């Protein structure tokens, strides 16, 4: 059924940064028209669902540009630890216990949380990624998926799994990238191989890059260059490349990233929680690097709430640079929408514009924490939380509205997750 949203405040995120008061007509999953007053013909009225939006703010669907959805069941499993201890001593051993079925339910859990907090697309790296793909297909959300790669005896098996993902799951809703985990878990030879395969399959690459001081120091000791320069030399930047974190990048690194059109994903909460420091986001933006925002996983955040992540992303940079006017609300909202789409080479989403995908989030403007509303963009970035999300719409399909998810059984999901929790408590 088509949808007409009436009388909403429409934050377009278009090139002119327009904020409009009017209607949005959705037909066949696309935004057919945005205008002050759209009238339906008598014949149309029976086939169009009308949503009264006079107390709603419409924004482009949020895009979580870096997470590990299959890791959602490890929320709060290993808190208050530095990255390497968190990863190698706690997370990796726990992950060895996770079955394909557990990854499926973990992915459903993450997707449910994201839909309820206004996310319409996420970028993901994990294992058993076919299970995450199935969860994406079931729920109707969009995703860019990558099977995490590392150098060991199963390296070729993982590469084959990536190819199978491309063959079996690529669609209008799912893109598949190659996903070398990092320069410290992948050999230089694997990085080169991934670069070649990404070009062969005409797809992209996502990687954790310069996340910690240990990573950068280890790279200099082994290769006598920074992780950014190493990836560039290996050819990873000769295709679409999404680099998560980029906390320890210098001016030369940033110059390379800008020149090669490498997109950075800013993960402020995860970087803070793991004690990794502060990414030089403002410097990257000034140099022309496209920057998006991601939550990272629920194991290192501990949520997948992009509304909160936008808020923290802005405040952290303001405090770090001691400049109140940088990363303003408009910039932040674009980083969480159109910039993320640009990062993955995805067109026709991230903006509320005629002809674009109807990936739309409706926020309740009259909730107490959203009043008064002198500037709706500011209220979205600095004031909103998931309780304000009224509806999440993907390709014109209402996946969540007024407290209800329509594409999964919430009660059954809770039971499955609690069963996984019990198993991990007893076995790890």
UniProtKB/TrEMBL annotation:
It holds the Pfam family Amidohydro_1. GO terms for molecular function: 5'-methylthioadenosine deaminase activity; metal ion binding; S-adenosylhomocysteine deaminase activity. InterPro entries: Amidohydro-rel, Deaminase_MtaD/DadD, Metal-dep_hydrolase_composite, Metal_Hydrolase, MTA/SAH_deaminase. Binds 1 zinc ion per subunit. The keyword Metal-binding applies. Substrate binds at residues 95, 147, 181, 211, 296. Residues 57-398 form the Amidohydrolase-related domain. Gene3D superfamilies: Metal-dependent hydrolases, Urease, subunit C, domain 1. It catalyses: S-methyl-5'-thioadenosine + H2O + H(+) = S-methyl-5'-thioinosine + NH4(+); S-adenosyl-L-homocysteine + H2O + H(+) = S-inosyl-L-homocysteine + NH4(+). Its EC number is 3.5.4.28, 3.5.4.31. Its cofactor is Zn(2+). It is an enzyme of class 3 (hydrolase). Keywords: Hydrolase, Metal-binding, Zinc. Catalyzes the deamination of 5-methylthioadenosine and S-adenosyl-L-homocysteine into 5-methylthioinosine and S-inosyl-L-homocysteine, respectively. Is also able to deaminate adenosine. It comes from Caldicellulosiruptor kronotskyensis (strain DSM 18902 / VKM B-2412 / 2002). This is 5-methylthioadenosine/S-adenosylhomocysteine deaminase. Zn(2+) binds at residues 66, 68, 208, 296. Belongs to the metallo-dependent hydrolases superfamily. MTA/SAH deaminase family.
